[in-house]
Amino acid sequence: MRQIFYAKVEEAAATSSSADKDRREKKDKQPQGLFAARKKLYVRDVKGFFDNWRWIFVWLTQIVFYGLPWLQWNGRQALLFDLNEHKFYIFGLIFWPSDVVYMTILLIICALALFLFTAVAGRLWCGYACPQTVYTEIFMWVENKIEGNRVARMRLDKAPLSANKIMRKGLKHFIWAVIGLWSGYTLVAYFTPIRELFLETIHFTLSASEVFWIFFYGFMMYLFAGWMREQVCKYMCPYARFQSVMFDADTLIVTYDVKRGESRGPRKKGINPREQGKGDCIDCGVCVDVCPTGIDIRDGLQYECIGCGACADGCDDIMVKMGYPKGLIRYDTENGVQQNSSKMDIVRRILRGRVLLYTVVLLALVIGLVYSLGQRSVLKMRVERDARTVARVVESGMVENVYRIQLSNADEKNHTISVSAHGLNGISIKGVDKVELPALSTQTLALKVQVDQTKARTAGGTSGTNPIEIHLTPLDFKDDVLSEKTIFMLPKQD
Q1: Is 29 within the bounds of a domain?
Q2: What is the DSSP string of 334-354?
Q3: How many domains does the chain fold into?
Q4: Is residue 406 within 8 Å of residue 379, measured between CB atoms?
Q5: Would residue 72 count as lying in a domain?
Q6: Rounded to an integer, what distance in angstroms lies between the CA atom of residue 23 and that of residue 55?
Q7: What CA dihedral angle connects 9, 263, 27 and 231, to 10 degrees?
Q8: Eight-class DSSP state of 126
Q9: Residue 212 gets which letter from DSSP?
Q10: Cβ neighbours, 10 Å, residue 465
Q11: Do 334 and 383 fall within a single domain?
C-alpha cells in the first residue's frame, strides 16, 4: 500500500513538476540583459523554532561584539589590536609580529571549521552568525517596528508623500544610521582603547583615521544591511559561489519534500488532500514571502539560499493551521528525503568519512595550538653575528667576536635576565652579565664575546668557525632558559 501511495504521489508530483518546468522554461526564454534592476523584497515577519535560534545568535554575537571592548584585563583592555605598538592583546596573551604563525594556524582552523559545518549542515554560518545576516535581521526588525508588517510597508511605499511617510522613513533611516555609527565606533575601539577613544570623542581630538573608519564602517553597514541586503548574499559573497562543492547527498540542507507536497494547490481546511490527488502544499507562497533572499525553496536548492530556516518556520505555521504534520519544508538530506530515512539514519550518514576526517584534523590543530600557546615563552631572543666586525685579538690577548642580540619581553611585568655564552673552553662575555628588560618591550644589545685562544684550542677549538650558544636565563624563573646557536670565529695561528 505504501508503494502504491508513493506511486500516486510521484505521478501527481510529475504533473506539477511538468507545469513548473514549463513555467521556468518560459521564464528562461525571456531575453536577459547584463543588468537587472533590483526588485525590492518585502520580507514577511515569521516566528518559530529557527527564528528563535537566529535571534539567540543575534544577541550572542552583539553582546560579544559590543561588550568585549569594555572588558578589562590586568588594568588594560582585554581584547586590543594595537597597530601603533605592533602588539595584539588577547586576554592574558600578547602577540607580536613574530607570532604571525599563530594567526596563520587560527585562520586555518576557522577555514576547516567552516568546511566541517558546511559538510554537516550547509550554510549554518550564513543563516545564523554571518554579520550580514545578523545586521539585516536587526535592520528589518527596526523597519517592521516603525513601518509595520509586510502589507503595511507595501502600502506605505505606494502611498503619496505625506508627513506620516516622511516621519516613519526618516526615523527608520536615523536609527539605521545610529546603529551603523555605533558599530563603527565599536570596531575602532578594538584598535584604540575604548576609554581613550571616549575621551578623544568628548574633547573632539579623534584622529583622521579613527573618524574615517567610524564613518566608513557605519556607512557600509547602513548600505549593506539597510539597502542591499540580499544583493550582498547573491552577488558579492564568494562563499555563496563555492559552497556547492562542499555539499553532498548527506548534507543537511533546507529542503522541500516533493513527495509529500506535490501536487500543490489551494484547498479548504479539513479536506483530505489525497482524495483530491493533491499533496500537503497549499501553494500559499508564505515560504517565498518570508525568505530574506526572495527565492522559492520548492524549486530546489539554490545558491541564493542561506540556510536560515525562515521558510521552514513559515511553512510549519501553515501546516499547523491546516491540521497537517509539520516538516513539509525542513532540514534534511537529499538521501533522507528520497529514501524517507529516519532521524537516526540521517545522523549515521552525517558521521561519514569526510566529516570524521575534518573533525580529527580540526581537533588536532586546536590541541596543537593550545599546547603551543601553553609552552610559549614570554621572552624571545634573536642572535646575529656582526658581519661588519671580524674576529679580533684584544689587548688582553683574548679573541673577541661581536654579536647583536634582539630581546623581547611579551610579559606585562619586568624581568632581569642573565646572559652567558657556552660551547668553547675559556669563553666569556665582556661587560654584560645582567639585562633589565621592561614589560612589553624590545631591546637590541651589542654583545662582546671573548675566548682564551689557548684554552679553546686545547679543548678542541679550531681556526675558523666554532659552534657556540648564547643563553638567557630569567632570574625570576630560571627553568625557562632561552638558547640560540651561533658561531665564533677563531683566527689562524701564526
Answers
A1: no
A2: HHHHHHT--HHHHHHHHS-HH
A3: 3
A4: no
A5: yes
A6: 36
A7: -100
A8: I
A9: H
A10: 13
A11: no
d(CA 459, CA 396): 20
What domain range includes position 333?
2-23+248-341
- Going edge to edge, which strands form the sheet with 93-95? 79-82, 87-90, 93-95
Return all residues near 373 (Cβ < 8 A) that are at least 6 apart: 93, 102
Q: How many residues does the chain have?
A: 494
Residue 397 near residue 453 (C-beta atoms within 8 A):
yes
Sequential pLDDT tens for the chain (494 residues): 334 333 433 443 444 444 444 444 444 444 445 556 678 899 999 999 999 999 999 999 999 999 999 999 888 899 999 888 888 999 888 888 878 888 899 999 998 998 888 888 888 889 999 999 999 999 999 999 999 999 999 999 999 999 999 999 999 999 999 999 999 999 999 999 999 999 999 999 999 999 999 999 999 999 999 999 989 988 888 877 777 677 888 888 899 999 899 888 888 888 888 888 899 999 999 999 999 999 999 998 888 899 999 999 999 999 999 999 999 999 988 888 888 777 787 788 888 888 889 899 999 999 999 998 888 878 888 888 887 777 888 877 788 888 888 888 888 888 888 888 888 888 888 877 788 888 888 888 888 888 888 788 777 778 888 888 988 888 876 667 888 888 888 887 76
Residues with Cβ < 8 Å from 370, sequence gap 6 or more?
none
Can you name the residues that pair with 411 across neighbouring β-strands? none
Asked if residue 59 belongs to a domain, the reply is yes
Assess whether 309 and 429 both reside in one domain. Answer: no
Helix residue ranges, H only, 256-342: 258-261, 286-289, 310-322, 334-339
* Residues 145 and 166: beta-carbon distance below 8 Å: no
Residues 408, 300 share a domain: no
Looking at 185, 216, 244, the residue that finishes a domain is 244
* CA dihedral for 234, 236, 117, 91, sign (positive or negative): negative
CA proximity to 323, closest of 268, 251, 249: 268
First and final C-alpha spacing in the chain: 107
Total-model pTM: 0.79
Angle between helices 163-189 and 194-202 (to 10 degrees): 130
Cell 507595501 identifies what position? 154
The position carrying cell 621572552 is: 379
Which of 182, 216, 244 is at the close of a domain?
A: 244
**Are 87 and 220 contained in the same domain?**
yes
Q: Which residues fall within 8 angstroms of residue 66, CB to CB, at 6 or more apart? A: 182, 186
- Looking at the structure, tell me whether residues 226 and 201 fall in a common domain: yes
- 67 and 14 within one domain: no
